[in-house]
Design brief:
about 120 residues, alpha+beta, five-stranded mixed beta sheet, 4 helices, 5 strands, globular
Length: about 120
């Protein structure tokens, strides 16, 4: 599956996304090979926080992404299977990113760990 096919599988980003993954990007020659992304646009710092499910699972944690059908819903079964395999065999090739967009349009990009916590900023 190429980027165009993956994008066709994704919900349109101009619609509010309530429960799903905002974007999955694939670069076969890249490091990382896959980026799973969440975009947040809020006017207050508190609004940029990732929420938790009732069971305590944090949005964008590996549990939230991989222990549900969210990845399949975002990219389809075949690509989800490829990404899951990559996470198991070469976890460094799959990153989860949070893009926080402020009202002035500036973007703060952070890499998230398996628990959905920030580990690196890419301003």
């Amino acid at each position: 599956m190429n980027n165009e096919e993956m994008e066709a599988e994704m919900e349109a980003l101009d619609r509010p996304i309530q429960d799903g993954i905002d974007g999955v990007y694939h670069n076969p020659e890249g490091k990382p090979k896959y980026i799973i992304a969440e975009s947040r646009y809020e006017s207050t710092p508190r609004g940029n926080r990732l929420r938790r499910l009732q069971d305590g699972t944090k949005r964008m944690s590996h549990k939230w992404i991989f222990n549900s059908a969210r990845l399949e819903e975002a990219v389809g079964k075949e690509m989800a299977r490829e990404i899951r395999k990559e996470v198991e065999l070469h976890p460094e090739n799959v990153e989860v990113h949070l893009l926080q967009i402020s009202p002035d349009g500036s973007v703060e990009q952070s890499t998230l760990d398996v628990h959905g916590n920030k580990i690196q900023n890419r301003g």
